[in-house]
Design goal:
The structure is a single chain. This protein is mostly helical. A hairpin with a 5-residue loop joins strand 2 (64-66) and strand 3. It is built from 4 helices and 3 strands. The chain has helices at 2-9, 26-34, 38-54, 92-95; strands spanning 23-25, 64-66, 72-74.
Amino acid sequence: MENAFYQTKLNAYGVPLDNRADFTKLDWSMWVAAMGTPEQFDNITSATWAFADSTTDRVPLSDWTYTSTPTMAGFQARPVMGGIYAKLLMPESRSSKF
């Protein structure tokens, strides 16, 4: 349910964290993606990859980024980026129930 809503809000470089601003947290995005269907996972991770591949900010991967432009909002090289491995923690049978 929740992931279906996020798909309607997906921008070129991710899903906005909330409706107050055009930024996201990459670790949060990957946790959300891990709980979605395979198609939802692919959509969100593709947007995350697009950010990493297109950003002109030459710093370690930022976890606080904008979703309409490939620029960081702040934060870089923080331990929360372990969230990119969230899918590895989800049993396949559970990932499509959220």
